[in-house]
Amino acid sequence: MMDGFSRIGETLVGKMRLLAIMVLGGLVLVIIVQAEAVLTTGEAVNRSMRYDIAMNGLNGKLDAVNALERVSRFAATRTPEDAQAARLFHNILLSRIDTWSAGAFGNFVATSPERVALLERVRAQVSGLSPLYARIEDPGVPDEIRRTLAQAVSGLIRIGGQAMMSNLTEAADIRETLRERQRFQNALVMVLIVFGAVLLAMMSFQARGLRLARESAERSARKFEQVAQRDPLTQLANRLAFDAALDKAIVEGDAGAGRLAVFAIDLDGFKAVNDMLGHAAGDSLLVSVARRLEEIVGGWGGDGLVSRLGGDEFTVLTRVPNGAPQAKARAQEMIDGLHAAHGLDHGNIVVNVTIGYALVDGQTVDADSVVQNADLALSHAKAAGKGRSQAYDASMREDATRRQLIEAGFSCALSRGEIVTHYQPQVEMATGRIVGFEALARWRHAELGWIPPSEFIRIAEASGRIAEIGEHILRSACRDASLLPQDVPVSVNLSVAQLARADLPGTVADILEETGLPPERLKLEVTESMVMSDSTRALATLRRLKALGVWIALDDFGTGYSALSYLRDFAWDELKVDRSFVQTLESDAQSLLIIRSIVELAQRLNISVTVEGVETPSQCALLRRAGCRVAQGFYYGHAVPAGELAGQLLRSFARVPLLEKPDLLGKGA
Ligand code: C2E
Ligand code: CA
Ligand code: CA
Question: What is the CATH number of the domain that holds 265?
Fold first, then answer.
């Protein structure tokens, strides 16, 4: 609405401005013409004001009267002086008549033929008197001169009078013209004043419009700045504001206020809060965490900055006058402070946080690397177990570089066949016969040498490359197993990302078909934690895999939550008892007891058991007494390339009499 008005206002002002410019132009033109006219009139006035014609006329009249009067005087005195004077005045009158024929007066006379005739008659009369003047002393002559002169004088007086009248009329005309011009000028001035006023009004209207526009632009710029710098949910500074503050703090340097510390704070299990209590609860928790962080940081004094970079990632920027120990203490203060229950509308929520932090030292000059350092420390803290803090140290950057190298090398490794599959035998303890192999990925990196799978599998999982690698291992394991001289099964490890894919059963079926390996010779190993992350979906996928005829094994059993409900929720074919139990077998009586219980439970549930990490004959003996039948470990053999499998297998079979058909799958009574 306001917009519509201001637009109409703008067009109106635009039109009026055009009109004003046109009128002003017109006025200027009129003024120029008027000035020219005034100038011309001025000249006319000057001319008229000289009254030269009138004066000439008047003087002519006087000369005539004087000439007449001198003749009369001589007639009375008859002195030679007066005779002389009478002649002189006759001559003056003659030359006056001459001036009346030329110049401005001549022009005036010429305007009327009657006047020209009159002047000629007077001239003839006066000049005709010259012989009479010559003998003026003669009696009767002066009277004769006086009679003629009197006639001439009346003519002269008529012309002189006319000249006077004409001069006066002209002056009056000019005065009238001047008055008109003045009136016109006044009107012009009025118009100019009115237009000036209109222009002034327009300009002030425009100025007001401009001011309003500027104010509104300033308001929206301020608002935009705020929006751009604030996290809308928590009202904390956002990444932009945090980066700017960090840049500024780095430029300012230490300045005696202490070293700069950046804390990267991550809520543990925030996703679970979102998933279980809904996003509204998640949002409330984030707001509560924000307020509490502000409270804690406010308590430190100084100008610490709390910001939210997104999701459940918070950062704190502060100065620590006492250096690293103080940073550590402050991290702990935040962990403790945030751990206290958050009273939300949805009930009380308790969260743990993990914190990584980095101090700005003399070498860190750019904000990015400080933040990266804090993030690196955070991922180390997370890897080491959540709910803790970790300071950055330089080795983390080496780790990160190595990690980047590994990540960048996957494509090459796959295409060049650098990632290969090795096989570790699984052996029936009673006979020493190989009853299966576990496929284990091996990567010899061109630069880094052998990289353990525990390292690169994690990185492949994090960077989304694991599905390709997993498929590659699965395919080679199936192919290698299909070429074995005995029908032993092969176990392949699955990763959580593979299990999450709905097309996994299809891929497995395709690979089985492609390699010709019977499904019952493939065992897929998953860990408890993999199933836990999304158990409904994971169990559904496992059921579809099992439906193919493939065996499903629960790997690293005993290390995770060991929730026995998993044993009920899914019909596992095999449990793989984790190496940690075997390692403590001789030192810890509990371990033996646990293994015995697992074996008994598994037998009742008709699940076969394989013990991992068997390294010594005594471990072997203890495990056999505990009822274990199949084992895997360095005692029986390390993982070897596919080429060595056939030999190993044949040798192990040669040790037992062929009559006794081995239970290759390790299952059954
Ligand atoms: P895992 O599935 O538990 O595999 C067994 C690991 O224990 C192997 O380590 C094996 O070399 C090691 N091991 C076997 N016997 C002994 C022993 O007597 N003593 C000791 N100390 N260790 C023994 P590896 O090959 O380094 O693999 C480590 C982990 O990497 C595997 O643990 C598995 O979780 C993962 N992994 C390996 N290959 C693959 C793969 O192809 N796909 C996936 N998703 N994960 C794999
Ligand atoms: Ca395994
Ligand atoms: Ca294992």
Answer: 3.30.70.270
Q: List pLDDT tens digits, range 626-668.
A: 999 999 999 999 999 999 999 999 999 887 654 444 444 444 3
Instruction: Look at the chain and report how many structural domains it folds into.
Output: 3
Residues (pLDDT < 70) of the chain are 1-10, 13, 38, 41-42, 44-51, 255, 363-364, 561-563, 656-669
Q: What is the pLDDT of residue 315?
A: 97
Nearest atom in ligand 1 to the alpha carbon of residue 632 is 15
Which domain-ending residue is among 155, 180, 205? 180
Q: Are 388 and 428 found together in one domain?
A: no
pLDDT for the residue 162:
83
Same domain, 432 and 570: yes
Of the candidates 296, 320, 316, 298, the one whose C-alpha atom is nearest the C-alpha of residue 306 is 316
How crowded is residue 545: how many other Cβ atoms within 10 Å of its Cβ? 22
- Residues of the domain holding 95: 50-180
Boundary (domain end) residue, out of 159, 180, 201 = 180
Count CB neighbours of 107 within 10 A. Answer: 10
Q: Does residue 412 belong to any structural domain of this protein?
A: no
**Which strand (E) or helix (H) includes residue 264?**
strand 259-267
Among protein residues, the one with the nearest Cα to ligand 1's atom 3 is: 556
Same domain, residue pair 532 and 646: yes
527 alpha carbon – ligand 3 mean position (Å) = 8
- Which pLDDT value is given to residue 4? 53
Structural domain includes residue 378: yes
Q: Which pLDDT value is given to residue 41?
A: 67
Instruction: Collect all residues with Cβ–Cβ distance below 8 Å to 413 and sequence separation of at least 6.
Output: 419, 443, 445
- The CATH number that applies at residue 516 is 3.20.20.450
Mutate to test the pocket of ligand 1, among 419, 440, 511 (most ligand atoms within 8 A of CB): 440
Report the pocket of ligand 1 as residue ranges, CB < 6 Å.
424, 439-441, 452-454, 457, 470, 473, 493-495, 555-556, 579, 613-615, 632-634, 639
Q: What is the pLDDT of residues 213-224, one digit of tens each?
A: 899 888 888 888
Residues 6 or more apart whose CB falls under 8 angstroms from that of 472 comprise 414, 419
Please give the pLDDT value at position 480: 98
pLDDT of residue 661: 42
Dist. CA 647 → ligand 2 center (Å): 23
Say what the pLDDT of residue 42 is.
67
100, 122, 138, 639 from 150: Cα distances, Å = 19, 10, 20, 164
Q: Is residue 104 part of a domain?
A: yes
Atom of ligand 1 nearest to the CA of 453: 30
